[in-house]
Amino acid sequence: MMKKKAVILLSGGLDSATCLAIAKAKGFDCYALSFDYGQRHNAELQAAARVAKALGAIEHRVIKIDLAGFGGSALTDANIAMPVDGIEVENEIPVTYVPARNTVLLSFALAWSEVLKADDIFIGVNAVDYSGYPDCRPEYISAFQAMARLATKVGVEGSSLNIHTPLIRWSKAEIVTEGQKLGVDYSLTVTCYQANDQGEACGVCDACRLRAAGFAAANMTDPTRYAA
């Protein structure tokens, strides 16, 4: 029997690496998709290439788009200061939110999945230990899936496209615990909003704080390399 194909959104961070490992464990042939969208650094893209190779992705593509042309986020606009003191106001969307990012990235994944004749897309969004981004919520994913089934040739012809979010209700501790069981080498990953060219993390941005707390809660050693 031929394996089913799946497109995996792979940033190179902890969550997306775990998501790729889960898709592989479920028996999918995995096609990894990463984006150079104008983020502050490309260390995560280098990490994505390492992770895709280590976890046996059939193919790994990097698509270049220009979300920095719009700005509006500390991740894409050098004029907006990166928060380094943790989440300051609860229930407020932080400046690290990139406007419409997941909608844009999922749309590209949808296009590739249609070409591949893949009915499954995996994305490592999380709505528990996260920064409060609106495009990481279950209701958003459900709405995008419904739209995708209406907006594509395969959907109109009866294919049942599925957007998988296996991490969406897991804590970071649960994510790294599952990843360890599946053999994810987290030393290959980079989870930092402002890592340097060597992939060394800052240790103070929200992404670094959430990652470190997750490993600590799981009683696991975080292999992150930090800048001096």
List the helices and strands in order. EHEHEHEHHEHH
* Strand order, largest beta sheet: 3-2-1-4-5
Structural class: alpha/beta
> What's the alpha carbon Rg, rounded to whole Å?
17 Å
Overall pLDDT metric: 93
Count every beta strand, where a strand is a DSSP E run of 2 or more residues.
Answer: 5
Number of helices: 7
**Main β-sheet description:** 5 strands, parallel
What gap, in angstroms, lies between the N and C termini?
51 Å
Fraction of residues in H or I helices: 25-40%
> What would the principal axes of the Cα set say about the shape?
globular
Low-confidence stretches: none
Beta percentage is 5-15%
Describe this structure as you would to a colleague.
With 228 residues, the chain is an alpha/beta fold. Helices cover 35% and strands 11% of the residues. It has seven helices and five strands. It has helices at 14-25, 43-54, 101-116, 138-151, 153-156, 172-181, 206-217, and strands at residues 5-9, 29-36, 59-64, 120-122, 162-164. The protein has a five-stranded parallel β-sheet with strand order 3-2-1-4-5, sandwiched between helices. α2 links the parallel β2 and β3 (59-64). α1 packs across α6 (172-181) and α6 packs across α7. The radius of gyration is 17 Å and the shape is globular. The model has no long low-confidence stretch (mean pLDDT 93).
